[in-house]
């Protein structure tokens, strides 16, 4: 028996969540309410933003019957009367009934495992056989760490990512075994590292690589963190494992525009028409271009590289100088070096770095 009336018509709740052009509206209420909200969203997008809402993709779903896919997660509502728990007073209650859960889609794990499995068994990765062992291990670690960090909010993350880790780790061992023309037991005997168990006493052997650094010898092992659900998301987590830790004195684009100051010459700008935003597509294209030629970077490129951004808020004079190829003298204290260390390889596409200035184009 429910502790609250699930048919209380007076109880209504609407919650809206958006990321880029994807959004979901969670509604506790009638189907008519959901249809009315969808119509209002369509009218608003059409009248205010001149955008068309795809009614075929914007569906109304009852979570009691089906799951909803949003940003790679599956959203579901549990119905389980048998699962009980006790509160601090020792009173039993249903733990999972009518609660909203985030789940890892099974097809995502299946798709991620395709490069590492053949006919239901783990296999070696041909493209990584000729890599150095440390590079291979780092690549495997980044894959599972990124997958876990993205799906760590899911209720079934332990089960789904645990399955991925099982085949993923075996694929790593088989890749190393194929590289050294050896067997799995010999690989573990040669590269096995004793690590402490997370949940209980004792140790286990796991694949690891020892390498030399300035501080001395260090050892990197295969991903050995506990795979369990987290209540709060990691700031900046992405599916490939990259994390942005935040750097002081680096502002968001809106704050930088509102500052009304050229980021090259630091001239105060009176109004919106006095400055423009310079864009590039890839910072690495800039670095590769000048690394290949052996030249030092111009001031504006040094500034963008030091800020690690693909946009630069500049006055019109500096923007014209950038596209004319003239060097701009910056008085920013953050840019003192005349050159920066460049180490990326590959042929750049110089057309990606700088594009013509188009003014008056909406």
Automatic annotation (TrEMBL):
It holds the Pfam family Intron_maturas2. One of its GO terms (molecular function) is RNA-directed DNA polymerase activity. Residues 1-75 form the Reverse transcriptase domain. InterPro entries: AI2M-like_HNH, DNA/RNA_pol_sf, Domain_X, RT_dom. GO terms for biological process: homing of group II introns; mRNA processing. It comes from the Bacteria. This is Reverse transcriptase domain-containing protein. It comes from Dictyobacter vulcani.
């Amino acid at each position: 028996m429910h502790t609250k009336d699930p048919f209380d018509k007076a109880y209504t709740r609407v919650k809206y969540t958006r990321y880029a052009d994807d959004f979901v509206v969670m509604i506790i209420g009638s189907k008519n309410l959901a249809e009315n909200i969808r119509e209002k969203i369509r009218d608003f997008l059409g009248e205010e933003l001149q955008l068309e809402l795809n009614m075929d993709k914007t569906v109304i779903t009852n979570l009691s019957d089906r799951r909803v896919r949003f940003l790679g997660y599956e959203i579901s509502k549990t119905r389980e009367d048998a699962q009980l728990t006790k509160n601090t007073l020792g009173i039993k209650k249903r733990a999972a009934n009518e609660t909203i859960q985030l789940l890892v889609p099974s097809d995502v794990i299946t798709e991620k495992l395709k490069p590492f499995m053949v006919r239901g068994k783990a296999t070696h990765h041909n493209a990584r056989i000729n890599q150095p062992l440390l590079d291979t291990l780092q690549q495997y670690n980044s894959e599972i760490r990124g997958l876990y960090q993205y799906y760590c909010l899911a209720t079934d993350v332990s089960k789904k990512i645990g399955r991925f880790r099982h085949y993923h780790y075996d694929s790593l061992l088989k890749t190393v075994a194929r590289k050294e023309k050896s067997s799995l037991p010999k690989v573990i005997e040669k590269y096995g590292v004793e690590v402490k168990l997370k949940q209980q006493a004792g140790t286990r052997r796991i694949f690891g690589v020892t390498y030399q650094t300035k501080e001395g010898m260090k050892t990197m092992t295969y991903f050995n963190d506990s795979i369990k659900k987290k209540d709060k998301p990691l700031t900046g987590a992405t599916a490939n494992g990259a994390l942005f830790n935040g750097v002081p004195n680096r502002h968001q684009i809106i704050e930088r525009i509102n500052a009304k100051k050229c980021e090259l010459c630091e001239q105060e700008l009176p109004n919106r028409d006095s400055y423009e935003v310079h864009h590039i597509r890839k910072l690495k294209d800039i670095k590769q271009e000048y690394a290949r030629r052996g030249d030092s970077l111009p001031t504006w490129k040094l500034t963008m590289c030091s800020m690690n951004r693909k946009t630069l808020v500049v006055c019109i004079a500096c923007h014209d100088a950038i596209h004319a190829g003239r060097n701009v003298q910056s008085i920013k204290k953050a840019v003192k070096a005349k050159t920066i260390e460049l180490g990326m390889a590959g042929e750049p596409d110089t057309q990606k770095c700088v594009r013509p200035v188009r003014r008056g184009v909406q």
